[in-house]
Amino acid sequence: MNGKSLIARVAALIGAAMAVYHMYVIAFGPPEAMIFRAIHLSFAVTLILLLYPLAEKDGRRRFVWLDAIVYAVAAAAIGHLFVNFDYFINRIIYIDDLTTFDMVAGVGLVLVVLDCTRRVIGWALPVTALCFISYTLFFSDVAPMVLVDQLYMTTEGIFGSTLGVSAAYVMIFVLFGAFMERTGTGTLFMDFALALTGRSAGGPGKVAVVSSSLFGTVSGSAVANVMVTGAITIPLMKRTGFKAPFAAGVEAVASTGGQIMPPIMGAAAFVMAEFLGVSYATVALWAFLPALLFYVACFASVHFEAKRQGLKGMPADEVPSLRRVIVDRGHLFIPVAIILTGMFMGYSAPLCALAGTLACFPVAMLRASTRQGLNWQMIWDALVDGSRNTLAVALACACAGLVIGSITLTGLGITFTNVVVGLAQNSLVLALVLTAAAGIILGMGMPTTPAYIVMVSLMVPAIMKLGVIEPAAHMFAFYFAILSAITPPVALAVYAAGSLARAPIWPAGWAAVRIGFAGFLVPFMFVYEPAILFIGDPFTIGHAAVTAIIGIIVMAAALAGYFGGPMPMWTRIPLIGGALLMIKPGLVTDVIGISTIVAVYLIGRLAARKAALSAPSNPG
Asked: To the nearest whole number, what is the mean pLDDT of the chain?
């Protein structure tokens, strides 16, 4: 057995142990919060040092001794917490001086977190954290000892609530996704989408939207979603006539929306629940209608583009029967139903996810169509995959703790709020635009979760100061941290889809922006009309939902240039205006908006009829 194979086996064993430990904790109760978070970080750091070595050459690890030093520092710093836990919890923070070992261990663990975060997700977040730490050390009156105390000795830094979310929530839901994938749920989602929409105009594009929205419920990663579903849908879209950039844009947008799609959203949704002190089910309820609007817009964009180009659906013999899909594989939806039912009954989200995870393989064994190929090795692989897929989130949350700890100590959040309010001149629209731009810029360089966390610390208080209710403010930050995945120049989901479609990145990126344009409007919608978050009375919620859906569909039609027929450019502008009036809450704007939409539609139909009558007849 060579060294690389041995390391892979050890990493698999540790990954499986990590998964089993977290399942045990959810079932029987966690230890004290700081201990639980430290154990979670210990597993994550160990796996990262094994799986992401400092350097490799010709398949061999280089600088193994440096990796060993990093591990020794991490073990000493976290071990200090385990061995001397009573000391950690009984000392008075900021008052009792730190020992020399406390200082060395604290600085060492900060460096380990920065290094491991760099290894697994790149430089952007570590550099951001270093900037905030440097500001605290050199541009504020906070003493270095106090900073180390905050970041290492308390639950306000590395071991803060964000790492707690990764340990308590994200791990089990990522594990659930790994179990669902291993039992063939991805095939179910694809066949289900094909059966529903495959034969309609632009069918493969609609399949991409439906399948990616379903797959997104078990995968919080836009890029992973693209690579799984796009490998099938993008070639189908190109084969039926969609241009490569548009096909890439559809898949990128549809896959990105998976992070906002209940019941299982991206990791940042769990952080939001922790920040707001509400249940995850409440966050999922807030997200439902905005996610529906996002996918309705994406679906409508595909439909109108297909109609404009005269594209057809897939041949009937290539589309599976919906009845056959449900009969053969429909039972694989049961684990998702278990999670939904459990949360509806008031059980905690982690416990519901554990029940769904444990149900995956027994449910797959129910029928011969899904039983074939299942074995114990697949369970082992699912445990290992679940742990590995958690690493990026775990270190992002630990590193984000460095940012939050620094901001809390310096009061930088209050300063930044005053700066944003000053720049916006008490204009909510301008403050929202600044916040959206910050979210997109932050999200270009780091995953959604840390981008959202930084926005909550810096930008969200500013828009709340201007009157935005707390759930809407957090959801606004959440959305724009996600939408960076489809916003050029750094659009990771577009890069992934473009590589599959063999499409130039910039055309694919702008196609994604056009297809997902409604996604950029939805956050503004629920800021001005919280009923879209299911906050308010039933009539207001229903009215807001209906008008918003109409406005979103009409906006997609205007951008595609097809509304009952091909549209000349001059008719698109009033149609966009009508769509925006429908999106904006208010009875007067709704009446004007629907009147404008109807007028544009009738004018377009009349122009098409005149063109048909004036066209020379074919004598045959």
From this structure: 88
Kindly write down the DSSP assignment for every residue of 274-311, as one continuous string: HHHT--HHHHHHHHHHHHHHHHHHHHHHHHHHHHHHT-
The Cα diameter of the chain in Å comes to: 98
pLDDT of 472 reads: 95
| Tokens matching residue 261 | 């799609």
Q: Is the pLDDT of residue 617 over 60?
A: no
**Tokens 């499986």 label which residue?**
16
Sequence-separated contacts (24+) of 518-521 with Cβ below 8 Å = 518/293, 518/294, 518/296, 518/297, 518/298, 518/552, 518/555, 518/556, 519/253, 519/256, 519/257, 519/294, 519/297, 519/298, 519/479, 519/483, 519/486, 520/436, 520/483, 521/552, 521/555, 521/583
Cβ atoms 129, 114 nearer than 8 A: yes
Residues sharing a CB contact under 8 Å with residue 39, sequence separation 6 or more, in sequence order:
21, 31, 167
pLDDT at position 10 = 93
Residue 566: strand pairing partners:
562
Q: Is 403 within 8 Å of 136 (Cβ atoms)?
A: no
Where do runs of H (alpha helix) occur along 201-279?
A: 203-216, 222-239, 244-256, 267-276
Spatial CB neighbours of 442, under 8 Å, sequence gap ≥ 6: 128, 450, 451, 454, 455, 481, 484
Q: Is the pLDDT of residue 69 over 70?
A: yes
Q: What is the pLDDT of residue 620?
A: 43
* Residue of 467, 459, 589, 460 whose CA lies nearest to 528: 467
Residue 507 burial (CB < 10 Å; 0-12/13-18/19+)? middle
Token output for 457: 């610390």
Burial 415-434 (b: 16+ CB within 10 A, else e): ebbeebbeebeeebeebbeb
Tokens 């008490």, located at residue: 426
Q: How far is CA 587 from the centre of its chain?
A: 34
For the record, the structure tokens of 173 come out as 């839901």
Percent of the chain's residues with pLDDT above 70? 95
